[in-house]
Structure formats: structure tokens, C-alpha cells
Amino acid sequence: MNRLKKGDRVVVIAGKNKGTQGNVLRLDEDRVFVENVNMVKRHTKANPGANQPGGIIEREAGIHQSNVMLFNPSTKAGDRVGFKVLGDGKKVRVFRSNGEVVEG
């Protein structure tokens, strides 16, 4: 089970976008793609077969997952994530600061 999942709200804790919040768009190995964070310009060639225009496209680049923390709505800050096995045998993610179960 991963500490982060698609759709999680995260806070960037290091780098040029430090302090920025956003939702996780996708995960690749150890990289996280966060909505409107670490934007890069990509020069693309037109592809008429895929109906894709050419030009300069701005999109998100990956950030290493060690540079983001899961956002805790009760403390309104980034928080570490741990795991806990409930009584029914289900494994869930929990916030380390207060032990609350992470939704989703």
C-alpha cells in the first residue's frame, strides 16, 4: 500500500514550489505529478493523425515523492502517513500527528 494515491491533496515541502498545495494527478515509481505544480513548457510537433496541434504546451513535471506531504485538513498542514490494521483486518492509512484515518 502506498502512502500517496491519485486524488490526494498534498503540500510541497521542498524545491521551487515549496508551500504549494495541489491534488495528485498520477504516480510513477517514485515521482508524483501534482496539479499546477512544477510546470514546464513542452515543445510538441503536430500530429494530425491524433488530431493534436503543435506548439508550446505547458504541463506538470514530476516531483520526487519525498518532497511532498499529505495535507491534513484538521491541522491544516502537511503530515506524515502511517499504516494501521483495523479490527476487521483492513489496512488503512493514518496521519501520524493525530492518528486519524485518511479518507479515500
Give the arrangement of secondary structure elements.
Layout: E1 9-12, E2 21-28, E3 31-34, E4 39-44, E5 55-60, E6 63-64, E7 68-72, E8 77-79, E9 81-85, E10 91-95
Overall outline = elongated
Report helical residue fraction.
under 10%
The fold-level CATH name is SH3 type barrels
Radius of gyration, taken over Cα atoms and rounded to an integer in Å: 17 Å
Biggest β-sheet, characterized?
A: 6 strands, antiparallel
How many strands appear in the DSSP assignment? 10
Helix run count: 0
* Rounded average pLDDT: 95
Tally of distinct domains: 1
Strand percentage lies at over 45%
Low-confidence stretches: none
Describe the structure.
The chain has 104 residues and is mainly beta. It has a single domain, classed as SH3 type barrels (Roll). The chain is built from no helices and ten strands. It has strands at 9-12, 21-28, 31-34, 39-44, 55-60, 63-64, 68-72, 77-79, 81-85, 91-95. The chain has a six-stranded antiparallel β-sheet with strand order 6-3-2-1-7-8, with no helix packed on it. The radius of gyration is 17 Å and the shape is elongated.
